[in-house]
Amino acid sequence: MSKKAITMMLAAGLALSSAPSAVLADPPAPSQNADHAFDNKVIKKISPERLYDRVALLSQTPREAGTQGEYNAVQYIKGEFESYGYDTELQPFTFQAWDGGTASIAINSSNFSGDVRTFNGSVNGTVEAPLEYVGLATPEEVPDSMNGKIALIERGSIPFYDKLENVLDKGAVGVIMFNGEGQQGNGFGYTYEGQDIPAVAIDRESGLSIVEKLKSEDIIANLTVKGAGTIDKTSYNVIATKKPHKNKDTGQIITIGAHHDSVAGGPGANDDASGVSGVLELAEIMAKTPSDTELRFMTFGAEEKGLVGSYHYASTLSESEVDRMAAHFQMDMIGSRDAGDLIMFTPDGNKNLVTDLGASAGARVAEVVEYGQLGRSDHVPFFERGIPAALFIHAPLEPWYHSPEDTIDKISKEKLTEVTEIVGSAVYQVARPDTPALENAAVAPGPVHYEFDDRPL
C-alpha cells in the first residue's frame, strides 16, 4: 500500500482539519469511547517514574556529539532497545566539529584569570587595542569611535550575527562577550561568513567586573585565538525496529524520534534527554503491543551541529521506504517545568497527518494541541523527503535553554508524561491492528478542530 493511499484512508477517517470544535463540549460519541479503550492500552502503561529516571541518568554528564559522553549515551540507548527485544542498529556518520583551540585575554598587560571560550567560527589571530563597552551592541549603542577597538558586548536581545555586524560596521577589530542576566557560563557564541575577527566569550561576573573597571580607567586589551578550526568527528544514530504482525502487515512505517546529543557543557536534561526518554518509554510499551505497522524508534546524533544525524538517516532511506512512511513524530524538549504549552510545529506551517493525529490524541488524553511553523529540529529532513512530520515541543522555551542549567531539577514529570501519552496515542491510532481502516465508525477518533498558533520558540 502506498503512502498516498494510506494518508487518504487515514485522513478520510479523521476528517480533523475542517471538523467543528463542539465535540470537546459534547458527551463522547460511541466511537470516542471505543478509542479511549484503545488509548488505554498504551497510556495506562506509561510510567512517569521511568520517564523521569531516564532523564536523570542521561543528564548526569554532557552529551556533545563526537564525545565520550555522547558515546556512553548511545550505548545506553542501544542496550535499552535491545532489552525490549528490538533489532537495533548503530548508524555511524562523520561530521565536522568546531575545535576552539586556545584563547586568552590580557587587560592592561595583566593576564585575565577567568575561562575564555572561542566563538564557533572565530578566526585565529592576536589583536591589541583599546577596549570599549557597547552594551548589547544594538545600532544605537555602538559609537562611531569603535574603529580600531575591541568591543566588550553583553549577550542578549539581538542575535550574535547582528551584534558582530553592528560593531564590524564601526570598525571593531575583536569581540569579547559576556552572558546576559540569568545566563550562566561562557559556552556560547558564533561568527558567520565575513565576520573575520577574533571573538571570545567569558562569564557574566567577569564581564561585569571589566565594565566596572572601564568606568575608572582606560583599558588596552590583548585578545589571542590560536589553533581554532574544524575537525572530523564521529556521531551515531540509534535505530530500533519492530516489524508488524506478519498476517496483518499494511506495508506502512511510522517513525518516532528524538536527539540524544546535548550542547557543549550542557547536561541537556530537557534538550533532549526528555525526548529520548519518551522514545524509550513508547518503545518499551509497544514492544509487546500488537500492531499492523512497522515501527521505528530512533535517536539522532549531532542535532545540535545542524541536524546532521537526522539528515544522514533520511539520506539512507530508499524511495520504497519513503513511500511507505506514513508519519514521523519528533519529540524535542518535552519536559521543562519552565517552558510554555505544548505545540506541534511543521516546517511549512501547514497541517498534516501527524498534526491531525496529535490534535485528536490530545483531545482524548488531555486537551487539543495547536500547531505552528518552525524548522530547527529533526522533523525537517523527513519533511524534505515528502514524509508527513511534526515536532512536539513546549514553547516559548525555558530560560535554561542551551545552558549548564538545563538540569534534572527543572523537569516536570507531568509535562513529560502528557506529551509521551499524546504521541503514544497518536502513533497507536495508526499502528493498532484494526487500522488504517479509520473510516470505520467503530474505531475512528472523534473529529477535532485545532488552530494555527503563531507562537515563537
Characterization of the model:
- The chain is α/β, with parallel strands linked by helices and 457 residues long.
- The chain folds into two domains: 3-97 and 232-431, Aminopeptidase (3-Layer(aba) Sandwich), CATH 3.40.630; 101-227, Glucose Oxidase, domain 1, CATH 3.50.30.30.
- The protein is 32% helix and 23% strand.
- It has twelve helices and 16 strands.
- The chain has helices spanning 3-14, 30-43, 48-58, 68-83, 160-169, 204-214, 269-286, 308-316, 319-324, 353-365, 380-384, 413-431; strands at residues 87-99, 102-107, 110-111, 117-118, 125-133, 150-154, 174-178, 199-202, 220-226, 229-242, 253-259, 294-300, 325-331, 341-346, 370-373, 389-395.
- Strands 1-10-12-11-13-16-14-15 form an eight-stranded mixed β-sheet, with helices on both faces. It has an eight-stranded mixed β-sheet with strand order 3-2-9-5-6-7-8-4, sandwiched between helices.
- Strand 6, helix 5 (160-169) and strand 7 (174-178) form a beta-alpha-beta unit.
- Helix 2 crosses helix 12 and helix 7 (269-286) packs across helix 12.
- The longest helix is centred in the last third of the chain and has 19 residues, at 413-431.
- It is elongated and about 80 Å long.
- 52% of the residues are buried.
